[in-house]
Amino acid sequence: MLPIRRWTLLLLALTPWARQPLAAQENLTIRCRPVECVAAPCPPPPCGRVGRVERTGRDVKVALDGRVLRYEVTERWTNHGHAIGEADYVLPLPRGAAFEDLALEIDGEMVTGEALDAGAARRVYEEIVRRQRDPALVEWMGMGVLRTRIFPIQPGETRTVVVRFRAVAEREGDALRVDIPAPRGQGTTASGTALTFRWPSGDGFGEAWSPTHAAHVTRENGQRVARVTDAVGTVTLLLPVRAGRDAAMTVLTHAPRAGEGYVLLTLAPPARVATQTPRDVTFVIDVSGSMSGGKLAQAKAAGLRFLSSLGNADRFRLIAFSGDVSDFREGWTGVNAASRREAAAWLDGLSASGGTNIGGALERALEEPTPAQRLGLVLFLTDGAPTVGERRPDRLAARAGELRGARRVFTFGLGGDVNAALLERLALDGAGTAHFVRPEEDVERVVGVVAQRITRPVATDLRVRADGVTLQQVMPAGRIDLFAGQELTILARYEGAAPRGRITITGRTPDGPVTWETDASFPRQRTQDAFVGRLWATQRVGWLSAERRRNGASTELDSEIRDLGTRWGIPTELTSYLVLEPGMSVPTTTGPIGRTGRPLPMGRGDLAGAGAAAPPPSAFEAARQAADMRSSRSVAESEQKLDGRRERRTANRMFTLQDSVWTDTRAAAPQARTVRVRPYSAAYFALMEHLAELREILALGERVQVHGRAVTLVLASDGVERLDAQALAAFTRDW
Known about the structure:
Layout: E1 11-12, E2 30-31, E3 36-37, E4 53-65, E5 68-79, E6 85-92, E7 98-106, E8 109-112, E9 115-116, H1 118-131, E10 136-140, E11 145-153, E12 158-168, E13 170-171, E14 175-180, E15 184-185, E16 193-200, E17 216-220, E18 223-231, E19 235-240, E20 248-257, E21 260-268, E22 279-286, H2 294-308, E23 315-321, E24 325-327, E25 333-334, H3 337-348, H4 358-367, E26 375-382, H5 393-404, E27 408-414, H6 420-429, E28 434-437, H7 443-453, E29 457-467, E30 470-475, E31 482-483, E32 488-495, E33 498-509, E34 512-522, H8 531-551, H9 555-568, E35 576-579, E36 587-588, E37 591-592, E38 599-602, H10 619-630, H11 635-638, E39 647-650, E40 653-658, E41 661-664, E42 673-677, H12 682-690, H13 693-697, E43 704-707, E44 711-715, H14 725-734
Parallel strand pairs: 1-9, 4-16, 22-23, 22-26, 26-27, 27-28, 41-43, 42-44
Antiparallel strand pairs: 2-3, 4-5, 5-12, 6-11, 6-15, 7-8, 7-12, 10-11, 13-14, 14-19, 16-18, 17-18, 20-21, 21-32, 23-24, 23-25, 29-31, 29-33, 30-32, 33-34, 35-38, 36-37, 39-40, 40-41, 43-44
């Protein structure tokens, strides 16, 4: 043994060893009355209840040093039971990571360990467990997976363990990729992950972003920091790497089956732009009677934020409307200190009264021509539907289309009384975005974010094409613009396959045409990065929903929305999820809904009985949801808020916790065979090696049931421990 004060900490060297974990009964040591029980279950009545150990905190710190990523993972484990317990979990490492050390908190001190022969380390650990001292054991289990065991954890006690490792940052196109795999096993779903990623400011790096989770980026002490809070599942970050004046492009693909591929393209603009596009920007503010009070105060503040975003090369107009329409000045105003002061005074003098003449305001905003060498932008803010002048939304949209030309239109709807469909159509037709702000939200902040984002145009009218495959249903649809300091996200479906393909993006700049290119592989089948397909489906549903409000429902539109909603688990106007308690069933006009206890996709009108399904959202909420979907850059932005303890989404599948088993909500195929596999066995790792999709799914825990095309995999302690080559090939074929 290796004494460290009165306690012992053991660390197993990272060398291959027998990958079979101890049987479940060997993982629990319980002090019973009046004897000590080593193997569970203890014979009643002497032994008490087994300790319930759960992870109650997980902080991951990642720092980029050169091209090396330094990881520090801090786990806190709490025993919520009434008997001594043990933390026993699996920590997957990023690909190519090198383990450094593990430290265990003992009496307030973090104590590190030493390396021993594998067999000796196991014997020492078990001996210390029997004596109920404080060891920790880390075992290498293959496939870059560490098994960590900490004992004892007294009832009500929280233990802290810190694991450190390093990895060379992998290149993904023109970005560095950072993956933080989710832990697996006992108690790991009790809390999410808090991630902090630090990288140097400058040095040719762009702004890190996550396609899987919402990331918040700040600057601290000369570094940039990205934070993700309460993350569930594997977290992926992409850090653009720019070479001098070049843009950085990253390509990720997902092809769940042959002939069905999805691609996510990110484009970070050059660090410096030679010539910036001058802008002609018009801000239109509703001052009708319904805007009185707090709404008008916020709208005026939004106007001031708009003025502060203008550059010296820009020109602007301010328009206010109620029953009538008024201008700050005739024609365009140049930007200088005096014009800003005068414009701010004009805004301050506005008062709310009268009706809502949206038609007149649109005519005035679009009547002043913008030269071809300048970028025309319109920001249109209103809280109501038209009550004066032309009131028919289709005629208003058509007239705006006649006058708009090449201008981009951004709309802001305040409160639930706006004509959401009209504002949505104006923005989509005008290659802008629609924003719907609830009464309790900050209008100034929303307008300020948009105004700041469109400050420095880099390239406009971007088009994307791929050599070797055909891109379809590109999102966002229509004209695409790129602004300095922002990363552009493009999603599309692709047909065909091209191991050595190429993506080309073309556009217009003040200096003339621009072309950016990058090599890309479009595989026929690739199950990794399943979030790519779901992100595309989310934006596609948002666009289809807007088209549905614009042109009315149709069989084709409704069918595609339902198909995407049910397949990818996306709540829409036509689909929702119902979680039935065990033993319950709800009939429909076509028969019972599946088996009980499963969340079920359905049309909102499919359930019999009042209150069975959520009522359709208001036009305002539906348009707001669709706008959020169209602008989603991460899966987290579009996730339905579910109870994190009983529902999990991973690898584009929904799982529910049923009798302690994470169960796939998809129906098993008729005549599908079942394969039962023991967790952390040789068969377990072999399946993950052959099918990358399973790496995310099996991260749910030690008891999982998931359905493939013609086979169901059940992860259970009584499963097989080995699969020969023939059995692996058959499973892969049926999956």
